[in-house]
Every structure is written in structure tokens, then in C-alpha cells.
# Entry
Amino acid sequence: MDKNLKRMATMHRMQVTGLELFYKQGYYNTSIDDILKELSLSKGAFYYHFQSKEDFFISIVQNLIVQKVYSMLIEPIEGKEDPFRTIDKCFENALETAEHNEYDYGFVLSNFMAEFNGRNEEISKYLRDIYRVWEVNLVTILQKGKTDGFVARHIDSEGVATYLISSFIGIRMLMVEGNSKMLSYQFMQQLRHYLASMVQQELV
Amino acid sequence: MDKNLKRMATMHRMQVTGLELFYKQGYYNTSIDDILKELSLSKGAFYYHFQSKEDFFISIVQNLIVQKVYSMLIEPIEGKEDPFRTIDKCFENALETAEHNEYDYGFVLSNFMAEFNGRNEEISKYLRDIYRVWEVNLVTILQKGKTDGFVARHIDSEGVATYLISSFIGIRMLMVEGNSKMLSYQFMQQLRHYLASMVQQELV
DNA sequence: AAAAAAACCGACCAAGTGGTCGGTAAGAAA
DNA sequence: TTTCTTACCGACCACTTGGTCGGTTTTTTT
# Structure
């Protein structure tokens, strides 16, 4: 933690409100004034703390978005025993949280990835890094699952991780369109079906 | 086809260029002037043909995007025999096309869904409609596949359709980040694995 | 309490934004 | 050829955008 308390407090408030609005309205569709109005702060305050809108957003990615993804999707999986049970629980929990969020606009990471893909390489890079950590994390637990006898040895951990991430990104996108309860239920059923097809069969 | 040839030609040119830029840069990040500059046309021409930017975009959805999704994802599946083979081929073809597209910015439908979700209900509605047709289409072929003995009877067609769409949306998003060849290969392997687990077993 | 540094204010700027409107080419109808 | 309609032009408008800067308040240091 930095010592500079007031500074950090104001910056943090701006970042929190910034993420809220960027998430809700999109980056390009949200102006700095929108954020400042919400906080009753001035342009001067903003540009005292941040160099530009882009710099501001990157700080949000590194401070808030990273943390969100970690606590929701990465930490719940790290170092656990049974990969499939763990992934099942983690995804279920993530979907349930989204489902009960009245103001759900989708998966933070993929929303911004969609908005910046091919348009802002700098920001894309930071977002991509987060997704990579997630992927590595999944691959790790799957590999460990093989040696621990949970996961069939012939499966391709990287491929499974890719498929899991893909399906998660997609379902979160669909859920925003409404009917999220039904969708997440259907999704979890199929996910279980998919995972079940990869458990290590008992040696007879 | 409308008779008004010149009218239709100009409108069409605007729509094509519009979709190109909206797809590449995003809707909110693309100005009407951007499009007009590309075509050496004036504001007057634009507002002679379209009422507003939103009206313009909706016409693009209804004319171009619908058609793109249909020809790539819906028609190749309609009325075919073996559902899993058909879906496999269709997805593989779609991914391959994307993979070889140097200027790939992701899945048109889901990109715009992400951009407008919760921000423009009008436009979201039209996009949602397309996705619904796709879903119904998948469910239909799966159900037919049951009676034809291709698909295990116990599976939930709606659930499978949702899962397929989710994973497709997700993988297309990931592919933009690069390494698309490897990603689409991994994806297809897992898709096949998933589909294979649902084939109707031979009655002994 | 005085001085210095940190935090914040808000008027201002140039460069856009979506959209309007009176006018003008060009092709079809008379 | 004249008339009329369709298609298009581009200056203009009100408003918003990201960003600057000289100045003021608040906090910390001395």
C-alpha cells in the first residue's frame, strides 16, 4: 500500500466509478466528464492524477479488472484437488453471481476485449495478459489432475482450457440478452456432460 | 429487388462501407464522416437516404449482417442429415474463413451484441433475433437427428445448442488476439470430443 | 504561524460529433 | 426543350470530446 493516502483514495474513487461506467456504457461511449460528474470532481483533479483517458483505463485494468478476474475465476481454482469438481463449482458460482446481478452487462474481460480488439493494441495487450494467466491456471490444474488420477491422460489440457474459456465467454455474452437463469442452467448441464466425458476411468 | 437502381446502389455502397468500418472500429468509435470520406460522398447524400446513424445501422443489420450469419452458420445446417457431421463441418468452415481473414476483428454478431447490450435496446433486439434463428435452427437439426438415430435421445437439444453457440462466440473472440490457427485447431478437437459423447449408441 | 507542496477548480481550447437546410446537378417525364 | 423529381453538395449549427493551464484551496512541513 502506498502511504499517500488522500491521493490513493481519490484515484481509487475515480477508478471505481470509471470502471462502473466503462463497463455499463462502453469505453468510447463514456466521457471523462460523465465520470467526473458522478463524483463531483473537476477536470483538474482528473488530469492531476492521470495522464490521459487511456492511461486512466490501463490503471483500471491493472488495479480492478485483474483483481476481479483473479478472485472470481483464478483463485478459486488454484491448487485445488479434483479439477472437474473445482471448475464446475467455480463456473457455477461465477454464473450465479452474474445471474443475480441486476445490472449485468456481460463478462468484463471479454466485453473490453471486444471493444479494443484491433483498435487499441496497448490496452488489448493488458487484457490478453489476464486471459493468459487464466488459461495457464486451467492448464496447470488439469495437468495436475492427470497425475492425481482425476483426469484421463489422453486429453489435451491446452485444448480443454481453450474450450472452457470459449464457452464461458460465450455464455456470459448470451446471458445479458435475458433469460439468464435458464441459460446458465443449460450451460452447466452441458459443461458437466463435457467434463464427465474426460474423467479418468477406474482401472479394472 | 427494388427498381430504384441508383438509389439502391448508393445506399448499398454506404451500408457495405459502413459495416466495414463499424466492424473494424466499433459503432461509437466510427463517425458518419469517416464513412462518407471513404466514399467521397457528402452529409447531404447520407441524410437523404437514412434518417439517422441508428437507422442506418439497423438497415445494415437487416440487410448485410443477417445475410452473413445466414450464409455462414444457418444455411449450411438447414435440412441436413447427420447433425454432428454437419455442425462439425459448418463450424470448421466458419473458423477457417475467419482464420484466413487478415483483417479479422471477431464474430460480427457477438461484437455488436457486446457493444449494444444494455445500451441500445432497439439495436440489441435486432441482433438478438438473428441469434434466436440460429438457435432454433440448431435445435431443429438436433431433434431431427434424434428421430433419425444420429443423436442420443436423452440429450437436451436446447442445452446443446446454447453450449455450441457459447463456445463459438467465445472462440471467435479469442482468435482475434492472435494464434488463431492453434486456437481453432484446439477448439475443433474439443468440439468433436463433445459431440462424439452425444452420438446415439448402436443397439446391440 | 509561515512556507511549501499537494490536491483540486473550472474557464477555455481545438477538434470532432450527429444532424439540418437551402441550394444545385443530373436524369426522367412532359 | 422545358419541367419536375431524384440524388447529392457542403456550409453551418449546437453540442460534446479529450486535454490544458493559471489560479485557488487544503494539507503537510518547518
